[in-house]
Amino acid sequence: MMKPLEGIRIADFTVHAAGPFCTHMLSQLGAECIKVETALRPDIFRKPHAVYGRLGPASFDQVASNKLSIRINLKHPKGVDLARRLVAVSDVVAESFRPGVMQRLGLDYDAIREIKQDIVMLSVSSSGQTGPDRHFAGYAPLFGAWGGLGYLTGFSDGPPVEMRHVMDHSVGLNAAMATVAALLRRRLTGQGCHVDVAAREVASSYIGEALLMASVGDEVGRMGNEDHRRAPHGLYLTSEDDRWISVAVGSQAEWMSLLQVMGRDDLASDGRFASEQARQSNRSDLDAIVSAWSITQVAEDAASAMQAAGVPAHVSWTAADIATDPHLRQRGAIVDVREPDGRTRAAVGPPVRLPDCPGIGIDRGTPALGEHEDYVFGEVLRIGRAEYAELVEQQAIY
Amino acid sequence: MAIEPPLSGIKVVEHASGVAAAYAGRLFTAMGAETVMVEPTAGSPLRREPPFFGTTPDQSALFAYLGAGKRSVALDLMLDAYRDALDALLADAHVLIDDTAMGDRVAIGLGADRIRRDHPDIVHVSVLPFGAAGDKAGWRGEEINLVHAGGEGFLLPNGLSADLFPDRPPVKIAGHFAEMQGGVAAVLGALSALWTGKGQFVDTSVQDANVAVGAFAIQRYGDGSLEHRHHRSFRYGGVIECSDGFVELLTLEERQWQALVKLIGEPAWAMDEALSDPAERSARGREINEAIRSWARRQQVAELVARAQALGVPMAPYNAPSDVLADPHVKARGLFAAVELADVGGVPMLTAPFRFGEAPLVIRSGPPELGADQDLLGAASKARQARRAEGR
Predict the structure, then answer these.
(1) Which end of chain A has less neighbouring CB within 10 Å, N or C?
(2) Could you give all domains of chain B from N- to C-terminal order, each with its CATH number?
(3) Do residue A83 and residue A16 come from a single domain?
(4) Model ipTM value
(5) B135-182 per-position pLDDT tens digit
């Protein structure tokens, strides 16, 4: 079977992280994704940002992989005209500007549905397309802060914790899913629609239970690594430097198994740990007991021993562990991508496996700005050589 | 204007004991699908998962969130008679979501080969901590294990919390963030499979989904540097304490920095010509942040954020859950639906963080009582018998 979304074409106006990750995921599932950029103002993630304290660009290579790159100068009227021609042959228009920008360009949903009646438009923004805060600027840490997820994350005696790129990419993953849902609806009803993904609402969607608790006056606070029910539960240092194992004991059977793995059967009849409630009440004693054992252990061996005994455990993995892990590579969750300059780098594959569609994943690395104009302008939009040269000359293609 | 939700008419059978699979079903429900939970006769373990409303463990807020809008049938899948009832439900469904451990699937009739043989048109979505294939397919994983197997666990906290507690272990993201990434990925896979029009197996690994959203650290590794929570804080900005709470501040663009200087009243230190160079700002980040932090302690959150956003400085308040509920923007958007919970009363239920037009999606009810929709089984069996009689 082909890639599942083969035949879907996306006109991709997204920038930053969340929107481009969304269309990147859809491209890995087979959609043809045409990334629209301009040399006037390249995607700000193509360039480095000193506030991060590093000189290289951020996640651009990953999320630009698999995409076709064309230049359109949307500040030029003929550039907007080109964008409209691209919309006319696309199934999805994706954008992640602040609400209002697409209107100013004449490319808002009402305008583009005049061009293509059943278009699916995806807008990813910090606060959504409606409401008093719709114009607010935001990045991942702000989404987490607004949505409540940042407030709830952190040690109980410390401050909130900022969400980073996983927050952006999680917004993109939600957006990719909603886009496919909108396409299914189009197939059934013949109607397009405007998909509105609000990043701060995505942050809130992960704390649904805490929001319900707050609504009845029972506010849940920051819990660090603690769990409402499970104990021992947390991160335990091993004999290796900065190498931690996560352990979560959620049943009597798991507790007994952990005692066996730790060689601490003497605690099996200890009243302090005899029930879930007792373990929860005495969790700081438990942390001390598990830590005393873990500090003597080699991390991966300890995690494997616990898993073999049925105890949920995993080493706190670094990017190096992930990029080189045989299980993840076997599954295609981690792949090597060859860049046009011949360099190979690790990248993430599709977020889910479809064994009947084995072709899903990354076919190409990062496109150069405007690399695919022969195909897109020439073959897809049927723009002749002379007209193309003229549009370049006029800097509508720039 | 309200539009028909995108998945109206889609029928989902969910057999879930964990958050990831249940959240997948919840997303389907919010998008208009009819989701039937197949629960063991003792009820889904999620019904017994805290936090609870009140002190008695009979009303889980987590289950209320995950189970809202769904239907429930109670079936003991170890009994053949109930297996027939399951088959009748599946005969009518487009999607099956299951998170049974690999080793237990065949015994309850949920093996992949069996489902493919008897229900060739169904999209069979497996949701497991480490997936259905590969060396670790049998591994178990709770939220804290999965956030660390996916890479983000090791990288938190950073910023202010890392400054305050450099020697503490990493800290997890609150709630069930990692498992919910698995749920979203499962639905993306399921909908992609539905798009092909062909029944098939979808193999979701919560770890894979988290590795995907952790793409940034993988790219950095490929580019030759290893991210660490102690080194990746913003050079300035981040979590900032005010007199009555915390705000988040992040300026990426030059104009945002300039607006920030205005916001803090153009003090002499910030007017230093050298700071117009972003590299210089990065190098002197600690000094800048000390000045911002001491200034911010005299500010109040709501007023400060309003002024910042008006000037174009990206800033947001660290909202507690109760702040989210009271937020005028959230109210104007109608993110929460009024839902009645037995023994608890009316509560605001988050619908979904996306919509398909101006109107929000709809969740009409809280979670069903165990077996509340048992009559679906009779109806499904009758329909199946009728189809058989007609030779279909």
Answers:
(1) N
(2) 11-216+331-389 (3.40.50.10540), 238-320 (3.30.1540.10)
(3) yes
(4) 0.97
(5) 999 999 999 999 999 999 999 999 999 999 999 999 999 999 999 999
State whether residue B290 is helix, strand or coil.
helix
Sole residue written with tokens 């309003």:
B306
Identify the CA nearest to B204 among candidates A364, A268, A297, A173: A173
Question: Contacts of residue A351 in chain B, CB cutoff 8 Å?
Answer: 181, 185, 188-189, 208-209, 212-213
B positions 138-157 inside 8 Å of A (CB): 139-157
**Crossing angle, helix A165-189 and helix A18-28, to 10 degrees?**
60
Model pLDDT for residues B275-297, shown as the tens digit of each residue? 999 899 999 999 999 999 999 99
Same domain, A245 and A105: no
Residue where a domain stops, chosen among A320, A335, A350: A320
List the domain range (segments joined by +) for residue A137.
9-206+368-393
The count of CB pairs under 8 A between chains A and B is: 532
The token pair that represents A243 in the structure block = 């190498």
Q: Across residues B265-270, what is the average pLDDT?
A: 96
- Separation between Cα atoms, residue A286 and residue A298, nearest integer Å: 20
Query: CA-to-CA distance for B292 and B328, rounded, in angstroms?
Result: 28
pLDDT at residue A51 greater than cutoff 70:
no
CA distances in angstroms from A71 to A41, A48, A111, A379, B91, listed in the order given:
10, 20, 21, 15, 49
Cβ–Cβ of A21/B215 closer than 8 Å? yes
Chain B interface mutation, best of A123, A201, A212, A249, highest count of B Cβ atoms under 10 Å: A212
Q: Under an 8 A CB cutoff, do A354 and B333 touch?
A: no
Phi, psi values for residue B46, rounded to 5° = -65, -25
My answer on whether A250 and A176 are in the same domain is no
A327 located within any domain: no
Residues B229 and B154 sit within 8 Å (Cβ to Cβ): yes
Axis-axis angle for helices B215-222, A165-189 (nearest 10): 120
Q: Do A354 and B202 touch (CB under 8 A)?
A: yes
Strand, helix or coil for residue B336:
strand
How many angstroms separate the CA of residue B377 from the nearest CA in chain A? 27
Indicate the pLDDT class of residue A30, thresholds 50, 70 and 90: very high
Record: contact B218-A348, CB cut-off 8 A: yes
Q: How far is B77 from chain A (nearest CA, A)?
A: 23
What is the pTM for the complete model shown?
0.97
Q: How far, in Å, CA of A162 to CA of A52, rounded?
A: 14
Distance from CA of A382 to the nearest CA of B (A): 29
Mutate which: A22, A353, A360, vs B, most B CBs within 10 A? A353
